[in-house]
Every structure is written in structure tokens, then in C-alpha cells.
Amino acid sequence: MRLFDETPGMGILRNVLYAIVITIVYVLVMMKLWRFNAGFLPAYCVIGICFAFFGWGGERLWYVTGGKFFQRPDGWLSLPTRLPYWAMFGGMAYVVAIVVSKKAGLVHLYERPISDMFFSGAQIGCLIQLSLYVLNGRMKRLLKSKNNELQPI
Fold this sequence. Notes:
By secondary structure, the chain is mostly helical. The protein has one domain (8-150). It is built from 4 helices and no strands. Helix 1 crosses helix 2, helix 2 (41-65) packs antiparallel against helix 3 and helix 3 (79-103) crosses helix 4. It starts with 7 loop residues before the first helix and ends with a helix.
């Protein structure tokens, strides 16, 4: 999700900020579920980074493929067409983050079916991207109303 026409550098910086927020929220949820392990903190960071950047990739792919069919690609009518992209890239993000963390020695997990991780990641990815979609819409409306107030009549 992006607010303005931005350079790739600003997009990366925005997604690093999203990754930090996603990591913090993920850690808090793990604490709430009594599954937090401080030794896994680097793996939680990898998960936040993967969700932020894979989500960005999913949005970019949607704009190239499905976004061309809408006059207003940021409108609410386009939301159902985004969900498969969010789910697919969320699932891939979670699987890649867990596998990379395991191979790097950041976590020691028992073997689980990848499909469980993929579907968990798909749900988390949809939730994250939907939150960013709503936040993006609200920020655009707020900025538009402020700009209308500041212009002389």
C-alpha cells in the first residue's frame, strides 16, 4: 500500500517501518497467547520483514494485473479482487520466514506440514493488508479534506 507516488527508496523505507510495526504486534500477540520465546526474537523480525515486503509485492502484482480493470483501483469495489493476492503472498511470506529462520538456526522447530504454515500466513497476511488498506484510505481522506480547507475560495 502506498499513500503517494513515491520513489523505490521511500517505498523500502515505508515497508521497513511496516516491518517494525508488524514485528511488534506479532510479538505482542505471541505474548498474549503464551507462546513468546525471547530466543526467537530474530525469527520474529524475519517474519515481520517478510510480511511487509511480500505484502508490498502482492500489491504491486495486483496493480499490474487486476488493478487495470478498475477506474478507481483504490476504491472499495476492488477489495474482493485483492484478497487472493493478500492470501497468497501472506502464505508465502510466513513459509519463507519460518524456513529461512530454521535454516539460519534462529529457531528450532519440529517438522510441521507446510500447508498449515501457509494457511496461517494467508490469514495473517490478509489481516495485515486489510488493516493497511483501511489506514491508507483514511489517511487519503484526511489529507484530501485538509487540502480542501487550506485552498482559498
